[in-house]
Amino acid sequence: MNDIVIRNQIRALRLARGSFTQEQLGAACGVTRQTIIALEAGKYSPSLELAFKLALALGTTLDEVFQYAEKK
Amino acid sequence: MWTVRRQWQVLIALGLVACVANLFGPAERWWGVDIGATGAAVFYLCLVALLGLMALKGSDAFPETWSLAERRAWVGMGFSALIFGATAKFLWASSHREIVPTRLFEVPARDLVSFVIVMAIAWGMAGHVLGRGAGPVEHDERDLRMRFQADRIGDWALSLTVVGSVLLLTTVPASGLAWWLQPLVLANALIAVLIAKMLVEHAALVALYARARR
To answer: Alpha helix locations (H) across chain A?
Structure first.
């Protein structure tokens, strides 16, 4: 099985919601601002629970927030 | 005017030099100055200044992208390195004494114990002061994941130390280990191993955070 790369649209969705800061998103999901920074930079893959919380906080579905592709 | 980060760096560098002078300075005076006592005084002054700076401008001392757990890991690494250094120095000094204590109250560990108590109090204060500026979330799953990995590295280091000790005990003649196998010496060495494990865990945590940012 090939490795996959998980991409996310957290930053775009967060900015689309107006003044939703990293701090506010982190507080809504129970994580630190630094974890949101790592997520947006693609340097951290969240647990399934956190992924659902993020989707809920951003008012969208999981597949709108996270996508995966095979690593080339 | 120096920035807060530069003040931190200067105080840490000065404190480190003073601590080395305190722990490993010569017994005799240099140009009439007692290096060990002067080092101790400067070290404690730097420690108080660092705690004060942390209380007043703690949020400016570390990069904004560092979580509270990462900041505490750095502080923990610093304090555990100091405690390990003092313990190692105590063991080294003990190995040069001809009379080995056989009862607990005979162990000349008053300086070490008072140093460890002061460091533990300062460490607790630093952790508390850092936590004051934290947001609503202090630790999250990413921090816990890092902590778990660092603990595993510490466990591996401890296992390797135990295996190394077993090899040493089975290969080196008993006469060569006579000093180390005396009960109170062995007890001190085991405490030093636990402190070393704590240091390895904090250093691993710092390295894991740094790697995750790359």
So the answer is: 10-16, 22-29, 33-40, 48-57, 62-65
Phi and psi angles of residue B164, each rounded to the nearest 5 degrees, phi first? -60, -40
pLDDT at B173: 87
Q: Cβ–Cβ of A34/B65 closer than 8 Å?
A: yes
Check B135 against A47: CB less than 8 A apart.
Answer: no
pTM above 0.90? no
Query: Are B161 and B193 within 8 A, CB to CB?
Result: yes
ipTM for the complex shown: 0.83
For chain B, what is the domain count? 2
Tell me which chain A residues have a C-beta less than 8 angstroms from the C-beta of B65: 34, 37
Q: Which residues in chain B have Cβ-Cβ distances shorter than 8 Å to A35?
A: 67, 140-143
Are residues B100 and B170 both part of a single domain? Answer: yes
What angle, rounded to 10 degrees, do the helices at B110-132 and B68-95 form?
180
